Design the sequence.
């Protein structure tokens, strides 16, 4: 059998290992952490358990497809449910809104709470599915770096609809046209944060995202988000993939324009016919590919935003809260200006709280809740994070106190903090960005690294920093696009 080495066991690395094992390769994964999953891991704090990074799960069929390919029934290995309410929204003036999965109920709720005509919701979601239907086959499922992608039927259809696909306006401009109530504009602008972008800059094409959440659905793995990692990791082991943890790769060996293996941190050389890089692309070029020609244009693209997370064990229950909760800033434009232009954190940030113990009670002790409390922050440019964390914690607590009308601080019994510096340290993401390069301009989809190297034969790329982008579904698709380029091992 031919051998494939994968550098990194992020979710795309694991998915790649499954696909290459099924193609007949002997697959070996090297991971610098002591555990698989990268950003999609977990944190235990006393009696509380938290999903460490991603909390929103869309397009579960991307996970299931891997089980189907291995001729296993996904339901026996990975179970999930569809959320009846995707998110609870809160504003400072006391307004609340539940985003029901049932679109009639959601339109009714929006109409009752915000006075917005129901038809506006329906039209916006038709528009969102229109963008998805035209662009998903082109951008999500194929390599943008293969001329065949640009000359097929899907591409031809998309060329004819450029205006309707939102390429020429920003997300905010499109949402201001679609909705009357500023709160609804804000709610739909928030989808830019799903890939770490700024709604006041990113093209309206990203209005594709509400389609995933509303028209298809938001889901929750019954054993928590970390079960996506666990179940796929187990599947890869069943297929014979081997992992070496606590093993950093120091260099990709390139001989006569071909990747031929890797050099490990202890100087050991491992040879392979195929090398797949799942490490963040920017840091990969700076370290394990530092002797190779650098794709400067791609490396210098602005990065997506990062996050500041407080994992809090809260010794009380709150009836008003659901799995996903958003407490909106009173000035969204100012908040995004701080994140993307000033490199700072706004004093009134939008706060997200994810509480898995509502769906998975053993994640918190009886009568308690596990609050994954997150705000979007700039990526790491050397800010004084210790100071920013202190200020932000105070601002978040004051905001929650105001809206929940409770003194939160005494309820926090355990705490751990993740910030852009520690995100980079734990997963090697350049500047701690959550989703690789940002999508703040209309060319950004083209300014992501391809799933292969055009300079070095047998070297491939997967993961959130390369095409088609960050987030679990796109990472899983990167593994598919990448492995589709690789011939079966004979
Ligand atoms: P990563 O998770 O980035 O892992 C890369 C792995 O490579 C790491 O394990 C690292 O240790 C290893 N590695 C790096 N260099 C080396 C080396 N030299 N040698 C060996 N190993 C190496 N996505 C969603 O879909 N929904 C969400 O709600 C969501 N929320 C998020 C919230 C947070 C706080 C974060 C951090 C991310 C979130 N994301 C979300 C994004 C999602 O987590 C990522 O896009 C995805 O998990 C990235 O996977 P990846 O395969 O690119 O690898």
Sequence:
């Amino acid at each position: 059998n031919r051998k494939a080495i994968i550098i990194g066991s992020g979710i795309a690395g694991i998915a790649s290992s499954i696909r290459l094992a099924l193609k007949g390769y002997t697959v070996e994964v090297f991971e610098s952490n002591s555990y698989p999953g990268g950003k999609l891991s977990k944190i235990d704090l006393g009696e509380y358990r938290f999903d460490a990074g991603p909390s929103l799960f869309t397009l579960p069929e991307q996970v299931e497809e891997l089980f189907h390919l291995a001729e296993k029934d996904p339901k026996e290995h990975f179970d999930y449910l569809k959320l009846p309410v995707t998110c609870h929204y809160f504003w400072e003036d006391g307004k609340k809104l539940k985003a029901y999965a049932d679109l009639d109920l959601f339109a009714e709720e929006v109409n009752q709470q915000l006075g917005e005509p129901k038809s506006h919701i329906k039209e916006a979601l038709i528009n969102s599915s229109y963008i998805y239907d035209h662009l998903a086959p082109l951008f999500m499922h194929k390599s943008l770096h293969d001329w065949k992608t640009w000359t097929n039927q899907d591409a031809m259809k998309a060329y004819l609809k450029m205006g309707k696909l939102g390429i020429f306006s920003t997300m905010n401009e499109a949402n201001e046209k679609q909705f009357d109530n500023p709160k609804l504009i804000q709610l739909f602008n928030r989808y830019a944060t799903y890939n770490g972008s700024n709604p006041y800059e990113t093209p309206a094409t990203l209005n594709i995202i509400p389609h995933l959440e509303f028209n298809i659905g938001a889901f929750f793995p019954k054993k928590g988000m970390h079960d996506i990692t666990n179940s796929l990791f187990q599947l890869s082991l069943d297929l014979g993939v081997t992992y070496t943890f606590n093993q950093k790769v120091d260099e990709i060996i390139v001989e006569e324009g071909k990747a031929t293996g890797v050099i490990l941190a202890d100087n050991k050389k491992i040879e392979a016919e195929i090398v797949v890089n799942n490490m963040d692309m920017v840091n990969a070029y700076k370290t394990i590919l530092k002797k190779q020609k650098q794709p400067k244009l791609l490396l210098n693209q602005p990065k997506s935003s990062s996050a500041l997370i407080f994992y809090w064990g809260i010794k009380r229950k709150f009836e008003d809260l659901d799995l996903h909760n958003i407490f909106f800033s009173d000035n969204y434009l100012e908040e995004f200006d701080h994140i993307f232009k000033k490199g700072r954190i706004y004093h009134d940030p939008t706060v997200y709280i994810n509480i898995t113990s509502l769906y998975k009670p053993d994640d918190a002790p009886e009568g308690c809740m596990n609050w994954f409390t997150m705000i979007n922050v700039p990526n790491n440019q050397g800010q004084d994070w210790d100071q920013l964390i202190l200020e932000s914690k105070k601002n978040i607590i004051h905001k929650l106190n105001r809206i929940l009308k409770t003194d939160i601080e005494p309820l926090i019994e355990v705490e751990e903090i993740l910030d852009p510096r520690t995100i980079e340290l734990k997963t090697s993401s350049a500047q701690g960005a959550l989703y690789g390069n940002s999508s703040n301009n209309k060319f950004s989809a083209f300014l992501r690294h391809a799933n292969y190297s055009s300079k070095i034969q047998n070297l491939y790329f997967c993961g959130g920093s390369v095409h088609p982008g960050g987030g679990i579904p796109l990472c899983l698709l990167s593994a598919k696009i990448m492995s589709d380029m690789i011939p079966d091992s004979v």
Summary: The chain has a mean pLDDT of 94. DSSP finds 17 helices and 19 strands in the chain. Residues 7-13, 30-33, 38-40, 53-56, 248-249, 278-279, 288, 307, 309, 423, 427-429, 434-435, 463-464, 470-472, 475 surround flavin-adenine dinucleotide (CB under 6 Å). The first strand starts at residue 3 and ends at 7.
